[in-house]
Amino acid sequence: MVDKKLEIKGLNIRFEDVRALKDLSLDIYKNEILSVIGPSNSGKTTFLRALNRLNDLEDRIRMEGTILIDGRDIYGQMEPEELRKRVGMIFALPIPLPLSIYDNIAYGPRMSGLRERKRLDAVIEKSLNEAFLWDEVKDRLHSSALKLSGGQQQRLCIARTLALEPDIILFDEPCSGLDPISTSRVEDSMIELKKTKTIVLVTNNTKQAARVGTRTAFFLMGDLIEVDRTEKVFTAPADQRTNDYITGKFG
Amino acid sequence: MTNLTVNLKEKIGFGALFLATMAVVVPVLCIIWLIVTRGWSAISWEFLFTMPRDGMRAGGIFPAIVGTFYLVLGSVAFSLPVGVMAAIYLNEYAKDNFLTRMINLAIINLSGVSSVVYGLFGLSLFVVFFRFGVSIISGSLTLGIMTLPVIITTTREALRAVPKPFREVSFSLGTTRWQTIRHAVLPFALPGILTGAILSIGRAAGETAPILFTVAAFYLPNLPNSPFDQAMALPYHLYIISTQIPNIRLDYRYGTALVLVGFVLIMNISAIVVRSKFRKKRW
Amino acid sequence: MLKKIKEFIIERLIFLSGIASIVFVLLIFIFLLKEGISIFKTVGLFDFLSGRFWYPISDPPKLGILPLIMGSLLVTLGAVVIAVPLGIASAFYIAEVASPRVRDALKSCVEVLSAIPSVVLGFIGMVTLVPFVKALFKIPTGLTAFSGSIMLAFMALPTIISISEDAINAVPRQYKEGAIALGATHWQTLYRVIIHGAMPGVIAASMLGIGRVIGETMAVMMITGNAAVIPTTFLQPVRTLTATIAAEMGETVRGSEHYYALFAIGIVLFVISFLINVTADLFLHKDKR
Fold first, then answer.
1. ipTM value
2. CA 20 to 30 Å from C11, out of A160, B84, C49, C116?
3. Distance from C-alpha of B145 to C-alpha of B86, rounded to nearest angstrom
């Protein structure tokens, strides 16, 4: 098959006494969208936040196991800052900083030391284009990002992540607060991004997983129940619980 | 029990609460009214900007104003950076452990220690041990330590009010912890920090006991010209003209009280304005 | 690389500032102890605390602080009797009864009170309260424990009101709504339900108010008359621990017994405020543990 982008081996995550993830092993391939579905508290978000080490911010989380990106151990061989520049993240709710559109997108590059105005301008135009937002905001780059609509804000957040040119992007239920039209725009940009990047999408919306996922993984109570090509998971799941979840018997 | 007695009870109960509240509020208004109306006639260019004459029975209170200005400046110069960084430590770095509990306990105690005990402390540490002498620097540092809890608590509240997701977004964009604090937290906590600084200025300006043995002078013919000089100060001046100098005109005392209260209240009102102006701005 | 060094230094500074509060509390204690402990070479701790006479400049000096402790206790007792009920009642009025607009006005008023410097309240007390007390009770001087108690009550009120109000607001809304739904009147809800929920906070508020009163210096010094005798009534001049330090430190010789004794009083005050604050904090965080 294709190249492995991410290799997760024996991942165990404990939140105080609760086991959030149990002995998870999973490979994620280059240029795919891996959809992660499952009911709440199944460990999906914890899994996602392990991939960019955002779990490090919580003192009460304990982790075992290894995660490799292109063969490099993200906990042993990479600084978290370096890792997070390569592994972008889009959060459930759009969280623009209370700055201008321009400054929001320039945030990451500036923090990495890019100061030159012309190059910043170019990065911002490119990122906004990739997030399908350029045409809507090109005339008001210096107005507040908070004035954008919810869907525009979420695409702004995508552009902000793209400004750092990551090769992996993590989406944490990115459309949970959006209307159907905004949702389909975000999904379009995901499918477009797949050509050059690897995407992990955590979603509560099984239909969304079916629409965009190359492969789909089903999590339940911290266990990976099954992972396979999306058509396979949705038409002939190997496990009864997967079938019950996608047909809406629980969750 | 009939409805009538129940309602009557409620009326009496609320009435009692109302009276109690009035017993608190009315005297406050009276005090302010008294100071303003009685003190106003004393306020003049001469009163504010000249040296005292005739054993402080005439002339102005200029040196006391200048002294308080220096003291306040000195104390904030110390307490603002230390207090803000302490709040950053507690809100952004500290884990829930023994050390953090000790720090919290220490802050509570700093805010509870008697002001005159701060005076003793300043005397023994800054005046005697560090050999700063009775000086502006000794007084400023003493006041600075005393106002530290105000700055720490208000800054901490301000930092806590910055949404946690801002930090996560910033981290997810590959920033270090300090970059996140500096660019995704502090700018949005600035109004709250400002409020704390203003409040601490008001507090430092009005305190008397901590400066009694560390800086305050009864009377000085000249203005201080180095941080190692003694200084006169408004609250101490009010104390001595109220208790130590007989036959002083009452409006002269009221005038001094008005200048002091006026300054402190202006500080407090600005703090309230800053706070409410930015409270409306939600993200 | 430079960036890393810069951040390392900043984060060190932040940590040092973080523990600065602990350092300062320790420094306060150590320096009070360093200066004050010497007195116990000449006067035993027990004699110091229970000695009935404070004549620091007689020869030999008599350094018993019982009159000062009694003075502080008496003034504090008076202030507590006035301030605690008034403060709690006002807090309930502000939190539960007043309309939002009135509430804001009342809270600003309380904030103003807390901002007025102690020396100003002392001055106002001298020119208004003291003559009034003198005339009211037809006594030779209005500089009495009673006057001090009234003034101190005012200074403790902002602390009591604001912390009690926080405690009342922290009572979960469901309790109140539940009681109302069961047909209780607002007043019944208030004194049967809300008062229970707010109790630990109200106790803590009262204790912190007491702490404020014991530590208060300038106003007390200006209006209690400063007679270092064991008081028998509220209508006589008394001298408190704090006023003694403030009034006498300026006249002592550094290194004299009197000087050490004043620092020893400082230790007593420090210990008292430490105990009060720690206990109040336990009450405030009772539910969170």
1. 0.93
2. A160
3. 12
